[in-house]
Amino acid sequence: MAASVHGGRIGNLPAEANAFIGRRLELAEISGLLGTERLVTLTGPGGVGKSRLALRAAHAAKDEFPGGAWLVELSELRDADLLANAVAQATRLTEQTLRPLLDAVCEHLAGAPLLLLLDTCEHVLDECARVVQELLAYVPELHVLATSRQPLGVPGEHLLAVAPLPLGEHDDAVALFAARAAAAVPSFTLTEANRAHVAAVCARLDGMPLALELAAVRLRGFPLDRLLEGLDSRFDLLVSPARPRLARHQTLRTAIGWSHELCTPLERLLWARLSVFAGGWDVEAAEFVCHGGPLDAEEILALLASLTEKSLTTRDGEGAAVRYRMLDTVRSFGAEWLSALGEEEAVGRRHRDYFRWIARQGEAEWLGPGQRMWAERLTAEHANLRVSIEASLAAEEPETALELTGSLWYFWFACGFAEEGRGYLERALRRAPDGGGPEHSRAVWAHRLVTVVPDDLEAAESVSAAYVWLAEERRLPVRALPLTGASLAVRGESARSAVLYGTTAGRSPAGDGGAEFHHLLTLALQAYLLASQAAFERCAVVAERLRADCARRGELWMRAWGDFFIALAGIGLGRAEEALGPAREALAAKVRVHDRLGAAAVADLLVAAQAAHGEEELAARLLGVSRNLWHSAGLPQLGDPSSTVFHREYERRLRALLGEARFAEAVREGGELGTDAAIALALGGMSGPMGL
After folding, report:
1. Which letter, b or e, does each residue of 355-383 get, where b requires 16 or more Cβ atoms within 10 Å of its Cβ?
2. What is the pLDDT of residues 577-635, one digit of tens each?
3. Model confidence over 275-285: pLDDT tens digits?
4. Which CATH number is correct for 5-161, 3.40.50.11540, 3.30.565.10, 3.40.50.300, 3.40.630.30?
5. Bridge partners, residue 159, by sequence
């Protein structure tokens, strides 16, 4: 696959938060297995340290995998059918096709040897087994390291059982407890005087790493001897006598249960209610979803700080970007407590209502100065949005499901989740009553919108025809949207497209935000059609109007297309130097809103502009950058000279000007740049936030 490099690091492995303690033998064994086996699964009970061990092993092995080491976190995945989406998203494959997504993932991962780390497979075990088996069959360079409480059951799987840490006074369990205790209480030191007490704590907790880390934090409030007494006297609050658990599970739950008992009643209640979140939350979300009864919204921030102090939640970011998370085992404990309180349905409904409001707010503000913020916020809340949509579909609330999926049209369309959005919209529309209504119309419109990519033109037109029929039947104000024209124009049917474009009138059914989007998209399509007919002067006029309308709104995503067509017109009119500025502005904007597809298209434009400007070697480097961007956007064929006229023509021109050796070297150099360095090269020193 095209490597994704950030700061010289290939893949997406997160940095380790603290020092890794022990497990030397296990790390050596995993290292050896990854060199000979294609599927290695670490098994063991919750809290034994499978995830942390796998991450450390992946970091140690990443230099052996030129294609990168990629972490796919599955703990937040509630719907097994989205497992392929999770792999695609983690490996930075943007979903832009109607073909089976797993086929696209296989193609995306093919090439250099790479390591895929699938973490926490047990709750989607059957789908994990199916996906892994297909990936291994069709991507011969792939190695998979998985963590699960039970084997995947795939042929060729090599199992490695992860045991608790050794318990001797000079072994790993004591070393881990001492390290975490010193981090929690800087004055703590492991000495010969307290070593036996530490070893006793570790023995009481059976050397389970999660339990040891939770217990170590308790030294902030208790001396070591009291800590040991507390562990001896506490019990698992939620163990059912009718369903005895394995001793190690009881030990872990005892540690978590003791942490629960040491919380105040309001902290316990908040812990339980926070369990409805997936992938984290911010303070506003916690206040809305978790308030009620004895828990006032004004108290939640202080209670979150207290839960974080007790290592039950973690806090990331600063200022407005602060988010909180829970370990899965801690969340599961809270979810059981929430069920015991009888609050699952009520808190789940508030969670659904909050993210329905978020979707509507994002839609209302998308075409404005907050666009970048909304792109980042919704990406951060992606797991919660999925939970809300799934809950609406499961609860047979068709209007809510239609509203949620339809309101998120801008997220599906502009932020690289078209395939997922299309799937949700189809499910919501299937469950909707025949009577229709405004939410139904918006969902139909949104579904049509996310089908307009080059691979999906037939689907786009079939949905377009259905929508036109629906609009006429219901006397809706929109008779046709310009997307039909766009799909035809992409195939070169400009004349028919222009006819359809000319009949477009009225407003989008997607509310005020959709109406503005419809207006801006109409201008973008008009600029496209004029450029395709070489009417570059008129194209520039329309593109300037598009850019001005977007600038008045403070909008970035569509404004970038205005810059794109201004630059394209400049190249067409022989003014390549004038085209560089707007092309770079377009690229900077596409990067800011995480639009990989748009960034790849603008990179192509910069190839043409630099070549026309006489910078042939730079143009060749940008050709390598462009190919990588198309690959990361999930459409590698659009960067392949054998598939596109543009790349074939510029490869021919630049080879002739530079010679075979210089051309090949320049393309290779551009293709090997990391994302940030590649964007910086394309921007030519122009400052702008990275993070595509």
Report:
1. bbebbbebbbbbbbebbbebbbbbebbbb
2. 899 999 999 999 988 888 877 888 899 889 988 988 889 999 999 999 988 888 777 66
3. 999 989 999 99
4. 3.40.50.300
5. 41
CB count in 10 Å sphere of residue 351:
23
Question: In this structure, are residues 470 and 444 in contact, taking their beta carbons and an 8 Å threshold?
Answer: yes
Q: Which CATH class is domain 263-342?
A: mainly alpha
The answer to whether the Cα torsion of 289, 292, 294, 297 is positive or negative is positive
**CA 333 – CA 328 distance, rounded (Å):** 9
The pair of structure tokens assigned to 580 is 């560089």
CA–CA dist 472, 476 (Å, integer): 6
Give the amino acid at 553: R
- DSSP code string of 49-108: SHHHHHHHHHHHHGGG-TT-EEEEE-TT---GGGHHHHHHHHTT--B--SS-HHHHHHHH
DSSP string, 414-469: HTTBHHHHHHHHHHHHHHS-TT--HHHHHHHHHHHHTT-SGGGHHHHHHHHHHHHH
The set of residues, in sequence order, having a beta carbon less than 8 Å from that of 21 and lying 6+ positions away, is: 172, 175, 176, 179
Helix, coil or strand: residue 615:
coil
| Greater model confidence, 347 or 432 | 347
